[in-house]
Specification:
globular, 7-stranded mixed β-sheet, alpha+beta, Nucleoside Triphosphate Pyrophosphohydrolase
Length: about 140
């Protein structure tokens, strides 16, 4: 038996400077997916012939309404979803502005300080990515 080819996806730990804080601190974007009733980071499957970088930017725009600037690459996360291996490549990304519109896939967007975001994230692997962002980027 040969191992199954992983589902390839990409996403971001999206951050922005905290408003009204005089440039102090950041906020992290979390998306709520009603299908799973969870809070996660924006991510999604690669389309045919799409690069992981292009997918990450597209998924951020689709799920949060934000344009973004990719920063440092973060760890790749591997896990099993729906019985298939999944491999998600992540980047740190700074939000450049945009407008959130709820959809059937993502119905809520929250901007939270890192400590509150860490508590709200459903999956421990997403908390690890948040920690990676905080240790690799200077805001």
């Amino acid at each position: 038996m040969t191992p199954q080819e992983p589902v390839r996806a990409a996403g971001c730990v999206l951050w922005r400077r905290a408003p009204g804080g005089g440039g102090e601190g950041i906020e992290i974007a979390l998306v709520h997916r009603p299908k799973y009733d969870d809070w996660s980071l924006p991510k999604g499957k690669l389309k045919r012939d799409e690069t992981p970088r292009a997918c990450a930017v597209r998924e951020v725009r689709e799920e949060t309404g934000q344009n973004c600037l990719l920063g440092p690459r973060l760890p790749t996360v591997r896990y099993v979803a729906n019985g298939r291996p999944k491999e998600v490549t992540y980047w740190a990304a700074e939000a450049l502005g945009g407008t959130f519109t709820p959809t059937g896939e993502v119905d809520r967007l929250l901007w939270l300080p890192p400590a509150a975001a860490r508590t709200r994230l459903t999956q421990p692997r997403d908390r690890d990515l948040l920690d990676a962002l905080l240790s690799t980027t200077r805001h």
